[in-house]
Write a structure and sequence with these properties.
The protein contains 8 helices and no strands. The chain has helices spanning about 10-20, 25-30, 35-45, 60-70, 75-80, 85-95, 100-110, 115-120.
Length: about 120
């Protein structure tokens, strides 16, 4: 016979929903696995959170202004918007904006200078 987790549905709801503990954190605290916590949450009728971050979008015009017009690095844009650098880079690619290295290579070709001369 399986041993029941020593936690009430009310306490589980408080820890998971109100305090925001993850299934992994609850599992560590209770000495079991995260799937066991997930199963107990379902038994208690508690909706589980998605493991993914909430999807956010940025208007293309705002990204163009920050990245191209102001010339901010991805890290500064990410910090300003409260997202990861990878998210900003994904937005940049989705908007069809060139990477900074690709843009520099294009400038070198158009200037007629050799790549080593264009960097000086």
């Amino acid at each position: 016979m399986k041993k029941r987790l020593p936690i009430s549905c009310g306490e589980l709801q408080r820890l998971y929903l109100e305090e925001g503990l993850s299934m992994a954190a609850l599992a560590r605290q209770l000495g079991c696995s995260a799937p066991t916590i997930g199963r107990r949450l379902r038994e208690c009728g508690i909706a589980t959170r998605s493991g993914r971050f909430e999807q956010r979008e940025i208007p293309r015009a705002a990204l163009v202004r920050l990245y191209l017009d102001e010339g901010l690095p991805l890290r500064a844009i990410a910090k300003r918007l409260g997202v990861s650098v990878g998210t900003v880079n994904n937005w940049r690619r989705a908007c069809g904006l060139p990477g900074r290295r690709a843009a520099r290579r294009g400038e070198e070709r158009h200037s007629g200078a050799a790549p080593s001369e264009a960097r000086r």
